[in-house]
Amino acid sequence: MRRNLRLLEPRRFPLIAWAAAAPGQALAAILAVHALVWTVLPTLLYPNLPLDLIEALLYGREWQLGYDKLPPLPWWLVEIAYRIAGHDYAYYLLAQLAVVSALALIFVMARPLTGPLGALVAVLIVDGLHYLNYTSAKFNHDVIQLPFWALAGYAFHRGLRVGRMRDWILLGLAVGLSLWAKYFVVVLAAPLALFVLVDAQARQSLKTPGPYVAMAVAVLVMAPHLVWLVRNDFLPFGYAEHRAVLSRGWYDHLWHPLQFAVSQLFFLIPSLLIAAPLFIPRRKPGEPPVASLADAFDRRIVTWLAFGPLVTVLAMSAVSGRGTVAMWGYPLFLFSGVWLVLVAGRALEQMRLARIGITWAIIFTALAAAFVVNYDVLPRFDHRYRAVFFPGDALAREITDRYRAVTGRKLAYVVGTMWDGGNVAHYSPDHPRVLIDGKPERAPWINLNDLRTRGGVVVWTTGDLKVIPIEYRNIAGEASVQPSFLLKDRRGDSSVNVGWAILLPQPAYAQIRP
């Protein structure tokens, strides 16, 4: 042991010694590296925006209180980033700001329980999740949940332990904003409320104004969107209904939660590897336990935060028998690192810290390398379709130029799918609005009379390219089909066949029907 400790003298391992002496500065450096790497990689390797961001830019520009799929907050944020920066890197940076904010809040929450060094280790453990690395490059409703869930956990613990009104207000704000991020917030709010009811010590808080203020703040923050949901017959819930696989029989009440649990355990492997030095080698007989800053109540709160939402998902799936979505795991394990540090109760001497730090660095590098391989190396050999290689800019340029050549006007409207129409809308210099799937109910902000007056195009990339798809004919059946054309993907040897038709502008009087 003495020999190993000597190998970790500051002059030989300055980074480890520096991290141990200044955990806060080490955290800042780690978060900066994280944000830089996962902003630069997609900026360099995604020549076309992914679907989540195309969708965000299509929806966000309309500034609605609600949409037909999901809550509006992430789409608003993408639109704000577009207006401020006007470059693709801003969307990837936005995703990383959400991630590092969540990690910073975990550190702040853990620090009084584990000490600054233990809090740093808790962050490193959580940062091993691919949810916060590889898949966080695509800013969406899953990513934006992270800081709000982390804030809710921090405020919930502080509210129960300290009882300051500002902590309860923060809790209400975090839960309220989580609804604007994703309806998955119920998986967070339900176990928090249950803990206050079932834990004797937590139940004492019900004698104070705090929990009621938190509920009031949450409802107040949620209110505009809740009103919109009621007025629109809870329209987005149909999307959730469509995504959740229906139960096929009694066995799905067992299989679906088991399937989700196994998938999440697999995704947790990197984090567990980072945490392994906390438990290996095992505690020797007679080795004194490390004095903990957390008492039994703290541990119960952290345990509930770490497992309550996961158990809620499993219980909901078991009761309903419905399938789950693997990406629901995004925010479920934010407090697992804090829990592991508390359970281990081991001294963070330099050798143990070095093993944790090296394991984290290997995993972080491996995830970044896998990203590079998938989007730069493999496309040269596997020829697999990747949406981020779609020729969105070329499609928009061709459609816009050809429409202008025929009509002499700017392109105002596109009728098409979220993907085809959204790419034209984003990459065209005219930035036309999109009637999604040709369905007015999916884009109620579009005035159909204005569409007919100003004209537009119909775009499709599947089926018969010489005939307008049947789903668009009610809106643009009179559109004139134009010669199709072929576009090569941004990378690789794949290509896209494009069918399109021009909906010529009609004077207002021409739209009058007898």
UniProtKB/TrEMBL annotation:
Membrane-spanning segments: 89-110, 117-134, 168-198, 210-230, 258-280, 301-319, 325-344, 356-375
Presence of keyword Glycosyltransferase: yes
Compartments where found: Cell membrane
Biological process (GO), any one: lipopolysaccharide biosynthetic process
GO annotations of cellular component type: plasma membrane
Molecular function as annotated in GO: pentosyltransferase activity
Keyword terms: Cell membrane, Glycosyltransferase, Membrane, Transferase, Transmembrane, Transmembrane helix
Record's bilayer topology term: Multi-pass membrane protein
Domain Glycosyltransferase RgtA/B/C/D-like positions: 71-228
Keyword Glycosyltransferase in record: yes
InterPro entries for this protein: LipidA_mod_glycosyltrf_83, RgtA/B/C-like
Primary site of residence: membrane
Name of the protein in its database record: Glycosyltransferase
Native organism: Pseudolabrys taiwanensis
